[in-house]
Amino acid sequence: MQEKLGLIVNPVAGMGGSVGLKGTDGKMYKKALELNATPVTPKRTRDLLSHIRNRYRIELLVPPGRMGEEYVAGLNIPFMVIGMVEEETSAEDTKRMAAEMLRKGVRLLIFVGGDGTARDVYDAIGLSLPVVAVPAGVKVFSSVFAVSAKAAAEMVDAFLEGINVTEEEVLDIDEEAFRRDRLASRLYGYLLVPNVREFLQAGKEASNVSKPSVQSKKDIAEYVVKDMNQGILYLLGPGTTVKSIADEVGVTKTLLGIDAIFEGELVGTDLNEKGILELLERYKRRKMIVTPIGGNGFIFGRGSKQFTPKVIKQVGRENIIVVGTKDKLSRLDCLRVDTGDLELDKLLHGSLEVTVGNKEEMLMEVR
Amino acid sequence: MMKGVIRLNMNEVPYPPPQRIIEAAQRGLSNLNRYTDLEHLEYLRRLLANYAGVSRKHVILSAGSNLLLREVIHLFSKGRKVVMISPSFLPIVEVTKQFAIKSVSIRLSPPDYDLNPEMLMKTVKEPTLILIDNPNNPTGKILLDRETVESLTQNTDIFTVIDEAYYEFSQVTFANLVHDRPNLAITRTMDKAFSLAGARVGYIIAGESFLNAFSSYDPFLPQCSLYAAIEALNNLSYMKRNVRRIIEERERVLRKLDKLGAHVYSSSANFFLMKIELPGIAKRIRDMGVLVSDLSGQLSPGFIRVSVGTPEENDVFLDSYTKILEEDDSRRLFSKNHA
Questions:
Q1: How far apart are CA A53 and CA A123, in angstroms?
Q2: Which of A184, A212, B113, B335 has the lowest tally of Cβ within 10 angstroms?
Q3: Spatial CA neighbour of B175 closest among B72, B52, B44
Q4: Which range (A314-318, B66-70, B200-204) has the least confidence?
């Protein structure tokens, strides 16, 4: 029996790159066209489809024209066209089509695009459906993306062969700031992707990174909470690992925002820089808890822009607590910072201990 | 075409031991109704001491070096911090958790995966047990130099254990320091260069502080392993030949992979690290009948560790890798034709 998979292509993703626009969000697509930018998604999409080994096992649901249909015709893969889109496509089309795929009962949604496309897909389906994300955008910072179209094909195959799925991060990149060579971002949400790491073979030397992610986060949370002191303000950064600490304390934390707790009580929710600075005025003893972004390892500068240089300096390097699961850290070469303040970045460089479990830490280089 | 599966995933030496060693093991089997005799155990200790260039009292035997590492952790981690390396395959994390104040793994970073001595020294400001494999598995890198080991062992609150499972390939050892450094111990094995993985003969070359703690340790070895190890140490020529052949093969395979454009790392052991930007590459190679070690649980995506096999086995691995590259090229062509 054929497996029903969805495919959505953002036909304008990546077009801004070659003409130096750093993205095609909003009005920039038209500007890219004026500059004779050529589409990059057709090749990526064909690369992907031609590398799927289990092509004979799938049936694709695709939107019409440049959002899917154009690339599957003639590939000997059964497909069905769903919905309607205008010649000029938009983020709304991606959202609408993704929601439609979910309704039609696809088992996996493949999309080709950049960070903006990933956000649209997240808005439409959240964690209801696993995805494979093929990188084609100018900005591809989210860890949901495969490293290449070929790698994405391997992920599709792995999924068809029964691999399980894991949560990966979707980032919101500020395109205007990015055009000014400044990377400002925040964690936007999570999508489910096939866990290609499950290819680990069994045997004597099987990895020790086998504990389910939920249990690992719980271990970290228990250890950190046991070590929390009275009279100290704790600023909690975004992410599921940090959220598990709030869960352990017994308060409700926003998943993507910065929240503050003091002696077991929530004293700030979804704080911006101003809100954090006000709290720092009131509480003289403070610590911040952050987790690196999966895939690139940033602890400051990408994913938690509310932790501005001013905030970080006031809290102090010695009061930074970094947490992360072994599974996530094993994929990172080092931690990274990009606060926008070179002096502060330099101060943060060196090494930091990351809490990875109960009484377990990993000493990682900060670059 | 070779039949069966090729095991390049366990860092074993592919050559079986010579007939005289198999016969020695068989002599051990003929005494299965008897416990291992102390006289032969002492003889093996003496041979190992000579081999390592230390006095006999510093050598403690065990059925595999993993058991010794676990014993060290049981005896020395209580009330101490335990420092290790990541990535590493020393099977100790879970054991450590039960006894140590906490465990800290120092993450090796690209491009060289070297151990920064300053980072190491910074972590040992309190009573600590350090466990480091040198060369490191899976990178194959030498992580420690004499100066670092001497600095570490100056502080008597710090116990340092260095695993030299691949010493015969690296020729780097700190064994002779144990005479002067009571808080230093070296673990070794005859599993690798001696072709005796199935016999599980391990030993620790220990400084005085370790010896005191190990005074009641009962060295247990099965008769057949004991006899095989004695025979192996009485004539080292086959082991030296093993090492020579493996190193030659390792360098040949690395040169070939380099020509194929693969990202490979130099190694001081009987295996090497390789990065391939294709998820599931270990599985794809395995599907072609060659087992390699998938490191996706230890390092960033795309890393595999390949043990050096016989020239024929290595050629099958190289052919499999080339075939995967060709398959990808033909898919790329397919994609281009449909563009």
A1: 30
A2: A212
A3: B52
A4: B66-70
pTM of the model: 0.78
Query: What's the first-to-final CA gap in chain B, in angstroms?
Result: 37
Cβ pair B309, B15 in contact under 8 A: no
**Of residues A197, A359, A362, nearest to B107 (C-beta):** A362
Fold of domain B6-14+239-337? Aspartate Aminotransferase, domain 1 (3.90.1150)
pLDDT grade for A31, boundaries at 50, 70 and 90 = low
Q: Which fold has domain A3-199?
A: Rossmann fold (3.40.50)
**What are the DSSP calls for A273-298, one per residue?**
HHHHHHHHHH-SSEEEEE-PPTTT-E
Q: Residue B339's closest chain A neighbor by CA?
A: A43
Tokens for A189? 């949400």
> Is B324 near chain A, with CB under 8 Å?
no
| Chain B touched by A345 (CB under 8 Å) | no
Compute the residue count for chain B. 339
Among the partner-chain residues B100, B279, B300, the one whose CB lies closest to the CB of A154 is B279
The arithmetic mean of pLDDT across residues B134-140, rounded, is: 97
Task: Return the structure tokens found at B219.
Answer: 């060295």
Query: Residue A91 and residue B61: Cα distance in Å, rounded?
Result: 68
Write the class of the CATH domain B19-237: alpha beta
pLDDT per residue as tens digits for the range A204-260? 333 334 456 788 899 999 999 999 999 999 999 988 899 999 999 999 998 878 999
Rounded average pLDDT over B325-334: 65
Which of residues A207 and B232 earns the better pLDDT score?
Answer: B232
Q: Where are the domains of chain B?
A: 6-14+239-337, 19-237
Residue among A208, A296, A352 with most chain B CBs within 10 A, to mutate: A208
> Is pLDDT above 70 for A80?
yes
Q: Helix H segments across A83-135?
A: 91-103, 115-125
CA distance A333 to A208: 18
List, for residues A171-202, the tens digit of each pLDDT value.
876 655 555 544 456 678 889 998 875 332 22
Task: Find, in chain B, the residue whose alpha carbon is nearest to that of A296.
Answer: B300
DSSP reduced 3-state for A50: helix
Interface of B with A in 222-261 (CB under 8 A): none
Instruction: Report ipTM (2 d.p.).
Output: 0.87
Alpha-helical regions (H) of B102-236: 117-122, 146-154, 167-170, 208-213, 223-234
How many CA atoms, within 13 angstroms, populate the side-chain half-sphere of residue A106? Answer: 28
User: Is A163 in CB contact (< 8 Å) with chain B?
Assistant: no
What kind and span of H or E run contains B81? strand B81-86
pLDDT of residue A213: 73
C-alpha of B113 from chain center: 17
Please tell me if residue A331 touches chain B, with a CB cutoff of 8 Å: yes
B299 with A203: Cβ contact below 8 A = no
Cβ within 8 Å, pair A361-B104: yes
pLDDT of residue A263: 95
